[in-house]
Amino acid sequence: MSLSPHHEDSAVFLNELKDISTTYAASRNQNTHICNAKRLTSRENESSVSGILLKNEFLRQNHEKRDLNQYWYSKMTIDTLCDAVRESALISGGNRVAFLSTPSLFFSLSREERESCALFDFDTSWGTCSGYYHYDYNDPENIQESCRGQFDLVVTDPPFISQCVWKQYAITTKLLLKGNASHVMTTTVDENAVLMAALFDCKPTLFRPSIPHLVYQYSVFVNFPSSALAQKNPELK
């Protein structure tokens, strides 16, 4: 199985990407300095980025794989999102977390914290790691019975922003959660805000993630209160 959507969904998928890309193209024409700042992060300011990467073991050891559409959060964003994960545990009283296509967050937790967590991801390079489960969104219900209904929080960041892909992830998310009162945290483009509300009852936060090598600007959506996500990200101008 590949990361590409099923053939019958490809037309819908491409149309959604075209609409979003058109929106961002218009934004770039009006505000070219925003995109230039993105390029500076990955090119002209390479030494600064490298300095950040060295402070996080996952970022240092794992290069993004373009064929898998992998784009890592910055270290500061990882730290903030991990703090939000910990806040969720304090609120819900449960510390079981499923990281759905979010390996940078899973591996940035302490070894002790990861003992109650699981990573569901397509990349099999982590196959020997404790807590790893292979996941393909083209088969969203292919989840081990032992994992169903076991998690207090599901953190999700699909490789694509299309609605048809998100709906596949929503099926998996609902299989993993303990119940309707469980927590969800997602990251995606603002254009998917209505979809996040419909699928997960999630709302955007003031904090927005930095993803150095990604052109799109993402937002964070949650269905629980978080002080870590209640302030702007100083990395973003």
Lay out the secondary structure.
Blueprint: H1 10-30, H2 32-42, H3 46-53, H4 57-61, H5 75-92, E1 97-100, H6 103-106, H7 111-114, E2 117-121, E3 132-134, E4 153-156, H8 163-176, E5 183-189, H9 193-200, E6 203-204, E7 218-222
Parallel strand pairs: 1-2, 1-4, 2-3, 4-5
Antiparallel strand pairs: 5-7, 6-7
Helix pairs in contact: 1-2
Task: Give the rounded overall mean pLDDT.
Answer: 84
Secondary structure tally: strands: 7
Q: SS-based structural class?
A: alpha/beta
**Widest beta sheet: strand line-up:** 3-2-1-4-5-7-6
Strand content: 5-15%
**Quaternary structure of the protein:** single chain
Distance between the termini: 39 Å
Please mark out the parts with pLDDT under 50 across 5 or more consecutive residues, or reply none. Answer: 24-54
Helix content: 25-40%
Describe this structure as you would to a colleague.
The model is unreliable at 24-54 (pLDDT under 50). The relative contact order is 0.16. The protein has 237 residues and is of the alpha/beta class. Strands 3-2-1-4-5-7-6 form a seven-stranded mixed β-sheet, sandwiched between helices. Helix 8 links the parallel strand 4 (153-156) and strand 5. The chain contains nine helices and seven strands; from the N terminus they run H-H-H-H-H-E-H-H-E-E-E-H-E-H-E-E.
Compact summary:
The protein is α/β, with parallel strands linked by helices and 237 residues long.
Provide key terms for this protein:
9 helices; alpha/beta; 237 residues; globular
